[in-house]
Design a protein that fits this description.
It is built from nine helices and 14 strands. The protein has 366 residues and is α+β, with helices and mostly antiparallel strands. The chain has a three-stranded antiparallel β-sheet with strand order 7-6-11. Strands 8-9-10 form a three-stranded antiparallel β-sheet, with no helix packed on it. A two-stranded antiparallel ribbon has the order 1-2. Strand 9 and strand 10 form a beta hairpin.
Length: 366
C-alpha cells in the first residue's frame, strides 16, 4: 500500500533568518526602536499594561452565522479548535494576541497557515520579522526577513494585516501609546524620587558635630567619637553613645520639607487614562465620580470597543471565507458579536420598552 506523502506546515512570516558570517540578517526600518519603547512603557508603567489587557478582554466574543446550517456548524468547530501559535487554540486566542499587538504598536500581522489545501493553523507574526511596504497608494506588500534581505511573502492572500488610525500615505498604523513616553517619564521620575526618599527615611543617616574646645587633638577626638558612634549603631546589640563636650546629632535631611506627590501623579495618570480610553474605576483608581458619570464613561468605553470591533471584523471574515472556500462551502459568513456587558442588554431592553410604549400612546391619542 502506498503511503500518502505529508507536506510540512510552513509559516511565511516566521523567523527564517540564519547566521551569516557570525551576524544576523535583521529587517531594517526605523520602527524597531519605537516598538522597543512601547514595550518598555508597558513593562515600567503597570497601569498602561493593565489598560491594554482590559481592552483585549472587554472586546468580547462572537459567533459566525452562515446561510448553510451545516457550514455554520463546521465553521464553528474550526474556530473553536484551530491551533494558534503552537501552544494555544481557538480563534479568540489568535484575536487576543492580534488585538494586543494592534493596540501596542498600531499595526498587527497574522497568517493563515495551510497544509494540503486546508487551513491548519493561525499564526501571530512578530513585527520584528516582517516589514510592511506601500507598493501603490492602494496596496501594501508584506516582506519577510531572509539572508538575502527583505523578500515578499509567497502567498500574500494568506497574510492578515491591520492598521490602527494610519496616517495618510503610510502603511503602518498609530499606537495608542503615542504621546505617552514624556508623561510616563515624568511619572516614573516622581515614583523613583519617592522610592529614594523612603529608602533614606527607612535607613536614617546622621550628622555628628562636636566642638573641640580644649579637649586635645581634633583628629583623635573625631576618631574616638566615630568608634563610639559605630558601636552604638550596631544592629546586633544595644549600646549607649557616650561623648564628652559639646556634641550635636541630627538626622540628615530631617529639616527638609517633603514634596507633595498626589497632585502631579494624578495629573500624569489623568493624561494616561485619557489617552487609553479606559474609565478610571476599571483600573483601580478611586477618583471621585458620581454614578451618572460612571455610566457615561461606560457608554464611551462601549463606543470605543465597537470601533475596535469594526477594525477586527474584516480579519475574522477573511479567515472564515478562506476556510469555507477551501472546505468546499459557499455563501457569505456574518460576524455576530456578543453584547459587551449585561448592562447594555438591560439598557437596550428598556429603550425598546419605552419606544413601544410611546408608540402605543401615540396610536391611542390618535
Amino acid at each position: 500500500m502506498r503511503r500518502e506523502k505529508q507536506t510540512a506546515v510552513t509559516v511565511q512570516t516566521g523567523d527564517s533568518m540564519l547566521p551569516v558570517l557570525g551576524a544576523w540578517a535583521a529587517p531594517g526600518g526605523h520602527g524597531a526602536g519605537e516598538r522597543a519603547l512601547y514595550r518598555a512603557l508597558r513593562e515600567q508603567v503597570p497601569i498602561i499594561d493593565a489598560a491594554i489587557l482590559k481592552l483585549v478582554r472587554l472586546i468580547g466574543g462572537f459567533r459566525v452565522a452562515c446561510a448553510d446550517r451545516r457550514a455554520e456548524e463546521a465553521l464553528a468547530a474550526f474556530l473553536r479548535d484551530v491551533p494558534v501559535n503552537g501552544m494555544s487554540g481557538g480563534v479568540e486566542s489568535f484575536l487576543a494576541a492580534y488585538f494586543d499587538q494592534l493596540l501596542t504598536y498600531g499595526t498587527a500581522v497574522g497568517e493563515i497557515v495551510c497544509q494540503g489545501g486546508r487551513v491548519r493553523a493561525l499564526y501571530n507574526a512578530s513585527l520584528d520579522d516582517v516589514e510592511l511596504r506601500a507598493v501603490t497608494p492602494l496596496s501594501v506588500e508584506v516582506l519577510r526577513a531572509t539572508n538575502e534581505g527583505m523578500q515578499p511573502c509567497r502567498w500574500p492572500e494568506l497574510i492578515l494585516c491591520s492598521a490602527l488610525h494610519p496616517e495618510p500615505g503610510r502603511a503602518e498604523g498609530t499606537s495608542i501609546l503615542r504621546g505617552l513616553p514624556f508623561v510616563s517619564e515624568v511619572l516614573l521620575k516622581i515614583y523613583r524620587t519617592i522610592g529614594v526618599n523612603w529608602e533614606r527615611m527607612g535607613n536614617v543617616r546622621f550628622a555628628v558635630t562636636c566642638r573641640n574646645d580644649g579637649y586635645g587633638s581634633a583628629a583623635d577626638r573625631a576618631q574616638m567619637l566615630a568608634r563610639e558612634w559605630s558601636r552604638a549603631m550596631r544592629r546586633d546589640t544595644v549600646s549607649d553613645f557616650v561623648a564628652v563636650g559639646d556634641v550635636k546629632i541630627e538626622a540628615i535631611g530631617a529639616g527638609g520639607e517633603q514634596m507633595e506627590s498626589d497632585v502631579p501623579v494624578r495629573q500624569m495618570l489623568e493624561q494616561i487614562v485619557a489617552k487609553l480610553g479606559v474609565p478610571p474605576f476599571l483600573l483601580g483608581l478611586s477618583w471621585s465620580s458620581t454614578e451618572r458619570m460612571s455610566s457615561q464613561q461606560a457608554d464611551v468605553l462601549t463606543s470605543e470597543l465597537m470601533a475596535y470591533r469594526r477594525v477586527l471584523e474584516p480579519v475574522i471574515l477573511r479567515i472564515c471565507r478562506t476556510w469555507l472556500g477551501l472546505s468546499g462551502f459557499s455563501g457569505e459568513p456574518e460576524v455576530v458579536w456578543d453584547e459587551i456587558t449585561m448592562q447594555d442588554e438591560v439598557d437596550h431592553a428598556n429603550a425598546e420598552y419605552l419606544a413601544a410604549r410611546t408608540e402605543a400612546l401615540r396610536k391611542k391619542g390618535t
